[in-house]
Automatic annotation (TrEMBL):
CDD domains: HATPase_RsbW-like. Residues 63-200 form the Histidine kinase/HSP90-like ATPase domain. The lineage of its organism: Bacteria, Bacillati, Actinomycetota, Actinomycetes, Streptosporangiales. It comes from the Bacteria. The keyword Flavoprotein does not apply. This is ATP-binding protein. It comes from Actinomadura soli. GO terms for molecular function: ATP binding; protein serine/threonine kinase activity.
Amino acid sequence: MTSRHAHDDTRWGFGPACGPAGPHDHAAPSTPVPESSDLPQTLDTAVTALTELKDATVSFTVEPDPESVTAARHFAVSRLIEWGAPELADDVGLVVSELVTNALRHSGGTSRGRSGDDVHREGVYDDPADPLGSAPSAIRLRLTREPPWLLCGILDASRSAPRRREPDYIAETGRGLHLVESFSERWGWRALPQGKVVWALFRSS
């Protein structure tokens, strides 16, 4: 599965862009996406850093209300501007909106604590050994950057695989993962002891 942004770059060793390995290019309605496997070592390490709040990863706590989608998108876009990568704002903002919406819809959609910039120094919200803060249905947005790459992840308390449906271009919903696939270099998901992370990789120009 190759996105519209195919590149080959060895900075993080990610190589050609593709989605999670598995025979789901022509998935039937509501087909679970296989868990990402055989990732390049540097990408695997980056996903681990994302979940454990290493390497200057920043985190945002998603509140259980529809306005959280907008708040999460604004958080991501403001970080991109701070990091000098405003050209990624549209793509990352769209993908963050889709992934947060999916997490709120399918994971129970509640969160303990406050929204805002819960950076790694605030361990009460972001304990590396407890990435969801012991909140039964917490949702976190995480961002980490190693130019020219940006890695985005949504952590939630559900271990169920994301489900991919054939898009209905008339319906208002059901196109989320297709949009994630189209606007990122590569994406996937990983099971965690207390849930999962769905991640997406972007490359700045």
